[in-house]
Amino acid sequence: MDHAAPQPLRLAAPAPLSGQVAVPGDKSISHRALMLSALAVGQSRIEGLLEGEDVLATAAAMRAMGATIERDAAGVWIVSGVGVGGLLQPATALDMGNSGTSTRLLMGLVASHAVTATFIGDASLSKRPMGRVIEPLSRMGAAFTASPGDRLPLMVRGLVPAVPIQYRLPVASAQVKSALLLAGLNTPGITEIVEPVPTRDHSERMLRGFGADLTVETEDAGARVIRLTGEAELRPQQVVVPGDPSSAAFPAVAALLVPGSEVVIENVGLNPTRAGLYTLLRAMGGDIAFENPREAGGEPVADLRVRASTLSGIEVPPALAPSMIDEFPILFVAAALAQGRTVARGLEELRVKESDRIAVMAEGLRAIGARVEEVEDGLVIDGSGGTPLAGGATVAAHLDHRIAMSFAVAGLVSRAPVTIDDARPIATSFPQFIGLMESLGAERGLDVAA
Ligand SMILES: O=C(O)C1=C[C@@H](OP(=O)(O)O)[C@@H](O)[C@H](O)C1
Ligand SMILES: C=C(OP(=O)(O)O)C(=O)O
């Protein structure tokens, strides 16, 4: 993070939100675009890359392992790759900052290269479990020395040639799936991954786009079987990154909640493995129109027109959870203002994100006057029926960008201000968040340093 001191934040909505905005590039797709470009033979161009701290950590790591990565203009990056198998030994530890995606995917890449790399990260990342990738990557032949609990700092020694495996994912995790696919790229033979519950499929789409031999078969029970032929040669590409639906979720929910608002968010990625929140908000009564549906960079996109709506509580269908896994914090804010009860369960994974998002959201929402019951695997929320929350509290973000942005939105619909103790983590995924909200009519609390 750029600033040494915490940066408190308060937002208020003195009037309805209105205007047309664009959110930055998709974080998941940006990480993958940099990694695959760095492994292609020749020069790739990426347009719309997210220039957030998490993605910059991936860029720095790929540079440290030999790729040439340069910024040409805002969001436009040029990458000269080293070829699959061509990663070099990094001179120093790879600092992953706050980014779980960078860490787990790069552990996969290193696992099948002649590279030994040490991964370090911030206090949040250093608490997150890495055993889920260490276990299958060890089966492929990589060697690990990790901190207690399979956490960072950790060291990976790759094996060449690595051993192809068949692996059934024990947790619904696109990061684990992607780590194994990336390891499989430089592994002879076929790496096979069975995914009982489908998760975001950006890796599969982009690997194909870069010329890898990858097939996906859907079994009767809905499980996906992904097979990647290794020792692949990737061809450089022109990648166009769509706007991030996970970032768009914050202004979208803000527009639903602040009475009288109408907002257009342009160019939002709506890959079905990512768009669960929008399906759910519409089922709750949210007025969200998908305008100008089209394709960008092999992904479906549309402009979202969002109008303030009366929302009803809902039981979140478990099948939707993987397609909105990062959107639960902001959904909980929407639920706190809805009419009736929202039940969101089966969400154990939320406890191992940048913070324990179940506990932290329960505590923060209660502190600002919402009625919330925390259960082991989720939250039960009794909404206010549109009545503003009390507010008047300081909420700890726990180094979690999505917690910080969720409570900033909650502050727009609270009677007394909601203060976020530290907004710096927002820069990991959505550096323009505050400016974008201001352009829609939100105002920063006057007594909080800019
Ligand atoms: O693959 C990815 O880009 C991501 C996968 C998800 O994590 P898990 O794989 O841990 O569910 C998600 O929460 C994260 O923000 C990004
Ligand atoms: C969980 C997230 O990211 P990561 O796992 O990459 O830290 C997120 O962005 O909400």
Q: Pairing-aware structural class of the strands and helices? A: alpha+beta
Write the CATH fold name of the largest domain. UDP-n-acetylglucosamine1-carboxyvinyl-transferase, Chain
| Shape label | globular
Structure summary, number of beta strands: 23
Low-confidence stretches: none
Report how far apart the termini are.
Answer: 16 Å
Q: Percent helix among the residues?
A: 25-40%
- Considering the protein shown, what is the CATH homologous superfamily of the largest domain? Enolpyruvate transferase domain
Largest sheet: 4 strands, mixed
| CATH class placement of the largest domain | Alpha Beta
**Taking Cα atoms only, what radius of gyration do you get, to the nearest Å?**
21 Å
Care to describe what's here?
It is a single chain. It is built from twelve helices and 23 strands. It is α+β, with helices and mostly antiparallel strands. It has two domains: 11-25 and 242-444, Alpha-beta prism (UDP-n-acetylglucosamine1-carboxyvinyl-transferase, Chain), CATH 3.65.10.10; 27-229, UDP-n-acetylglucosamine1-carboxyvinyl-transferase, Chain (Alpha-beta prism), CATH 3.65.10. Helix 1 runs parallel beside helix 6, helix 4 packs parallel to helix 5 and helix 7 packs parallel to helix 9. The model has no long low-confidence stretch (mean pLDDT 97). Shikimate-3-phosphate binds at residues 28, 101, 173-175, 178, 200, 325-326, 349. It catalyses: 3-phosphoshikimate + phosphoenolpyruvate = 5-O-(1-carboxyvinyl)-3-phosphoshikimate + phosphate. It comes from Sphingomonas morindae. Keywords: Amino-acid biosynthesis, Aromatic amino acid biosynthesis, Cytoplasm, Transferase.
